[in-house]
Amino acid sequence: ALLPSSDGYVASTDAYWAAVTQLSTLFSDSQLALICENPNAHWVFVTLGRDEIQRNNKALFAYLDSLVRTNLTEDVIINGRTRGFYSWQQVEVIKGISASFIEAQPITWFHIFYKWLSETKHRTELITEKPIFLDQNGNASAPFDKDKQLILFLPVANITGYKVVHHDLLKNSDTAEFIEAIGIKEPSLRDRIYNIILPQYEKGGEIDTDSHFELFFDYYCKCANNEVDDFIDLIKGCEFLTYYDDGDPQPYRGAASTMY
């Protein structure tokens, strides 16, 4: 079947129906193609939101829904969809918004996108670990990692080594407000420890452990009581303490968890 799209007609195999009409306005057909990994993807029934039709006209909903390849909600667009998660029914696997998708978009579109995200708490919560921002090198980055640690920051003069938000994104006041509202800020001492210092222990090689010990102790003395245990868990596996074996003058590095 040929179904109506925004610029003509499209085959059912390339037809995608949006849960609400706003989605087909925010995401173009070319963006939809990247999200669905289908170069021929088109939105159809762009004036008819699937959710509204489902509520108000069951018969029409069942007919239209049987014609399209699949339907898309905001959650699916942001997070993607796997067949395993919906194993109780036949659904189309959707890639969703990815790093490569974000890196392909113009700066001007991001301001519209972030405004849409900021409209609901649910959308904002969905993207905290998604690579939806550009860093200073134009690479997609999430604001937080899987451990809920901040990994993207506001730029600070004369401070390097961090991933920071692309300067063009900060030129728009609404975007800048959204970026700060979700928790992106200038790096703190804890952020320096997590993003700059701790990765050195994962890579190995020569490390200035004395200066690190001082920074760890400085943060330990300053942090709130309810943060102490989390901080200790963060650093206790790192080999930043110097020790000696009996009868051996050679200093070695070791983790506190292995010492007595």
Structural class by SSE content: alpha/beta
Whole-angstrom Rg? 25 Å
- Main β-sheet: number of strands, strand sense, barrel status? 3 strands, parallel
| Element-by-element helix/strand order | EEEHHEHHEHHHHEEHHHHEE
* Strand tally: 9
How are strands sequenced across the largest beta sheet? 4-3-5
Strand content: 5-15%
Distance between the termini: 74 Å
DSSP summary: helix tally: 12
Which outline best applies?
elongated
Approximate helicity band: 40-55%
Give a verbal description of the structure.
With 260 residues, the chain is α/β, with parallel strands linked by helices. The chain is 41% helix and 10% strand. It contains 12 helices and 9 strands. The protein has a 3-stranded parallel beta sheet. A hairpin with an 8-residue loop joins strand 8 and strand 9. Helix 3 packs antiparallel against helix 4 and helix 10 packs antiparallel against helix 11. It is elongated, with a radius of gyration of 25 Å. The mean pLDDT is 93.
